[in-house]
Specification:
Blueprint lengths: L5 H4 L8 H6 L4 H6 L2 E5 L3 E6 L6 E3 L4 E2 L1 H20 L5 E10 L9 E10 L3 E9 L8 E9 L5
Antiparallel strand pairs: 1-2, 2-6, 3-4, 5-8, 6-7, 7-8
Amino acid sequence: MSDASPAKAVGFTGPIDPQRFFAARLGGHVGALGMRYHAHGEDWIELALPYADKLIGDPETGVMASGAILALMDMACGSSIWLARKMFVPQATLDLRIDYLRPATPGETVIGRAECYRVTRSIAFVRGQAHDGDPSDPLAQVAATFMFTGAPT
């Protein structure tokens, strides 16, 4: 996330409604990759990354590129902070560790779930996982920290 708030870019301010936000046909990497809203709670969100030929990282196997999954998880992590704080917050990814456990199944949508489990005055801590249909068989796990970069929008 950068200081240029994606919320302002699509005309959103105040409390977050993630379903409406992601339905706004966001540009940038979110739109280019085809990410979409899946579900959310008080401090967590699930985003979906539908399988597409343009996301294939290995043409021989049809496996989705790891960079697309990383982008999905970064966006899910950042969005979970907005939910936890109940507002759009300009922020920057300080650290995002992703452990790939297995390749995504070709042809399947990848679901990225992130939970903001702690917020301080200037930092938020998030954890999550990505799966392709079975949350008990994740393809990746993430741990991330974000720094707030400005006033809430």
